[in-house]
């Protein structure tokens, strides 16, 4: 049986390249996890997700507990079999979604009672119940059930919330059934207050988890505060544990966080953008609904081997979105996930080669440029990212 562990391969400053060994296979880090909210990465077949190079996907406890229900997924062989993803799956705890329900939820010291956004039925999540559900789903990596206050908030509100999350983390750990190759991550809270972040790391490392997540960021504080919070938080996490920055982010966020020592990411941005005609490229984003793409015979990116870029023009994708054809979101989600995976592979390769500073400067210079002009075809100045 494979033991769950993260092992380093190379370092550049605080950035790390490594491998995450799990019961469901090994993942190269740093890694981006596509979000498979209800047991599907929206608009993608699992073969398409695999083809982008994704090594691990995310599932949502809140959505799956409501529909089809955790016990049904367990009876059907677990989430891996149910969604045809034999690789590692990380499930969130449901906390973030439940806390976002606003008037539909009631928080107490023991857990949260809430009404389903689907049919209004009443449900309850506690640290124990969330952990049990993630076990029933057969999550490779389970997350602690926690509370994340919206920022900005007064320090005393953030402190109180963080301390409750730390008490809940202890209950999650007690409820977790340890198995070889499986993991549970504690979630560091504390807003943008360095002292509270440090207190949170101490509380979680005293309990002891296989990995640590940085929660409560990318909730409106801005990139500068997010990076300064990572600067004071990531170095406190044990060096041999994987570090996961939850719900982040833009390509620029990912690069800056990897430089600060983060190994794992998830975000709805590439998939959500793919459904709204927004394409990620080496030179920023394009809105394919824009009329300027209507007669453009070039691919979205000459460096992308996804189905959209290898077979179709910007003009065709523009047409699909204008005609509200379902193939538009399918092709563009594929492209955006391929871009995110290529971005992470390039960053990882640069850490291994010892060229991260140069690679990062190159990426940032490209993002600062405008989209390619038609006479730049075939884009001789941009080396393909491996
Ligand atoms: Zn593409």
From TrEMBL:
Q: Which residues form the tRNA-guanine(15) transglycosylase-like domain?
A: 14-367
Q: Where substrate is bound, by residue? A: 92-96, 146, 189, 216
Q: How is the cofactor bound?
A: Binds 1 zinc ion per subunit.
UniProt KW keywords: Glycosyltransferase, Metal-binding, Queuosine biosynthesis, Transferase, tRNA processing, Zinc
According to the lineage, what is the superkingdom? Bacteria
Report the enzyme's class at the first EC level.
Answer: transferase
Q: Any idea which residues are catalytic in this one?
A: 92, 266
Q: Which InterPro entries match?
A: ArchSynthase1/Queuine_TRR, TGT, TGT-like_sf, tRNA_ribo_trans-like
What is one cellular component GO term in this UniProt entry? Answer: cytosol
Task: Report the EC code(s) recorded for this entry.
Answer: 2.4.2.29
Q: Name one GO molecular function term.
A: metal ion binding
Kindly state the subunit structure of this protein.
Homodimer. Within each dimer, one monomer is responsible for RNA recognition and catalysis, while the other monomer binds to the replacement base PreQ1.
Please identify the protein, giving its name as recorded.
Queuine tRNA-ribosyltransferase
Native species: Novacetimonas maltaceti
């Amino acid at each position: 049986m494979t033991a769950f562990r993260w092992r380093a391969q190379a370092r550049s400053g605080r950035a790390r390249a490594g491998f995450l060994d799990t019961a469901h296979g090994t993942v190269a880090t740093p890694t981006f996890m596509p979000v498979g909210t209800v047991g599907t990465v929206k608009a993608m077949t699992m073969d398409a997700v695999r083809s982008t190079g994704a090594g691990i996907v995310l599932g949502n406890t809140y959505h799956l507990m409501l529909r089809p229900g955790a016990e049904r997924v367990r009876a059907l062989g677990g989430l891996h079999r149910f969604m045809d993803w034999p690789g590692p799956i990380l499930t969130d705890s449901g906390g973030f979604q439940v806390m976002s329900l606003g008037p539909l939820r009631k928080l107490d010291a023991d857990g949260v009672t809430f009404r389903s956004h689907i049919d209004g039925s009443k449900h309850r999540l506690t640290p124990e119940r969330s952990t049990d559900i993630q076990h029933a789903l057969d999550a490779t990596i389970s997350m602690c059930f926690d509370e994340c206050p919206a920022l900005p908030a007064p320090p005393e509100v953030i402190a109180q919330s963080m301390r409750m999350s730390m008490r809940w983390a202890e209950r999650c750990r007690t409820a977790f059934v340890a198995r070889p190759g499986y993991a549970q991550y504690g979630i560091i809270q504390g807003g943008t207050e360095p002292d509270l972040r440090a207190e949170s790391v101490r509380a979680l490392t005293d309990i002891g988890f296989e990995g640590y997540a940085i929660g409560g960021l990318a909730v409106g504080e801005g990139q500068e505060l997010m990076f300064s919070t990572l600067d004071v938080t990531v170095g406190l996490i044990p060096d041999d544990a994987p570090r996961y920055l939850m719900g982040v982010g833009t390509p620029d966020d990912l690069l800056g966080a990897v430089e600060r020592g983060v190994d794992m990411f998830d975000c709805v941005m590439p998939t959500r953008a793919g459904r709204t005609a927004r394409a990620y490229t080496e030179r920023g984003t394009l809105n394919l609904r824009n009329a300027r793409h209507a007669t453009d015979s070039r691919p979205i990116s000459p460096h992308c081997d996804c189905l959209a870029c290898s077979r179709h023009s910007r003009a065709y994708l523009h047409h699909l979105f204008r005609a509200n054809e379902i193939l538009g979101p399918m092709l563009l989600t594929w492209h955006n996930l391929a871009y995110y995976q290529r971005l992470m592979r390039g960053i990882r390769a640069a850490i291994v080669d010892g060229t991260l500073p140069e690679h990062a400067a190159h990426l940032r210079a490209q993002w600062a440029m405008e989209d390619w002009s038609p006479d730049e075809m075939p884009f001789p100045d941009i080396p393909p990212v491996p």
